[in-house]
Amino acid sequence: MRRGVAFCRVLCAVSVLLLAPGSALGQAQPPVQSAAHDASQSSGPPAGALAQPAAALHVSARPDGSAGAGQGGARAIDARLAGDQQRTRLIIDLSRSVEFRAFTLANPYRVILDLPDVTFTFETRKALTRRGLVAAYRYGTFAPGKSRMVLDVAEPVAIDKAFILDPVDDQPARLVLDLVKTDAASFASTVATAAEARGAPSAIAGHDATLTETPGDPRAVIVLDPGHGGIDSGTTGASTFAEKNIVLEVAFALKAKLEQSGRYRVVMTRSSDTFVALGERVRIARNNRAALFVSIHADALASTDGQARGASVYTLSDTASDSEAARLAESENKADLIAGVDLSEESDEVAGILFDLAHRETKNFSALFARTLVGAMKNAGKVHKSPLKSAGFRVLKAHDVPSVLVELGYMSSREDLKLMTSDAWRGKVAGAMTDAIDDFFATRAAGVGVTGSIVQAPAGK
Ligand SMILES: [Zn+2]
Fold it and tell me: Domains of the chain (ranges plus CATH)?
């Protein structure tokens, strides 16, 4: 019990935020319980952390709620699971104590740990080992200054204990999370609200990409959307490379080329390794009155699904053009779920689209650009044997912004992967994409619409 004593000596207060189910969005209720701990009364973890029904457990590292004095980000050095199907414990070794929040989400069942800026230095492979109630977990940046860990659980669980042990002697600080098996009804009564899951509005406000119009700048705005990021690595295609890094590099190369031309203002939905929700990517396009939205990804096939190579360009449609497109949209649409974002609160602009006239025009322009882009990419390298497809991609749902999603190639193909990780190829592809964007705007400016009608020049012209 030595560690337990050490814990209570240093960590004296645990505040438990009780959130009424269905409480107003974005408004955390004031703490209704704050238990002070006296080392003489307890040698175990704080009982206050076990109060039920708690939607979210908020654990401060210090009695004043601060995370401790003067220290940049903490490092997570190791993580491990212990226990069985009845009770499973996650232990994370940390370079110092941190403040954290733990809560659960349904559909599918997940447990979320929100942390401050933590750098994870242990092996990713560890997170894929199934143990007890935890099927897998992942971790990474969730927003500027915020990290997150998401645990997939196969069945309903309750957070039984969640606490921090301060470092002592040669032992690191430890975050301990105990999950116990529960039933679906109890789980439902403690699940966090969507606002809780989002981790407060600042998860979004931290983005410079939400900057809106620049008055007097006549250039068309192009929003580049490197897929995934932070806690959501995208696919790896069984390689050591992550999709999120490859697509960010290509987006940077394309941004540089476009800006060189002087004809466009480029906005990136992310310019670092951080998570951005799909709805937020759509909002960035709309808030910037983008004339074009290009989402950049890389695909992968399971080894049992054969081999495929080359780039494909996708547009939005109600029904998928083929089973391959349906599979891909389903996988790309999981990004929010992977990062532990609740989808139930998405606004109308994402969840339901009115297929009105404006939307039809947008659809036509999206199709025009998709064709132009495939043409240009054929010149730059390999394209898929049927490179134009469509499906219900959530990220393409800005109803007034022509939008396409490019899959640069297959990370499951050794040849494609070699290309996608080379500087020369990146430069070539960025050049081809810039040519396609030039062609697209030239066609639009000439008034040649795909419907045959006279169309408007790009925004700002
Ligand atoms: Zn992707």
Answer: 2-202 (2.60.40.3500), 207-445 (3.40.630.40)
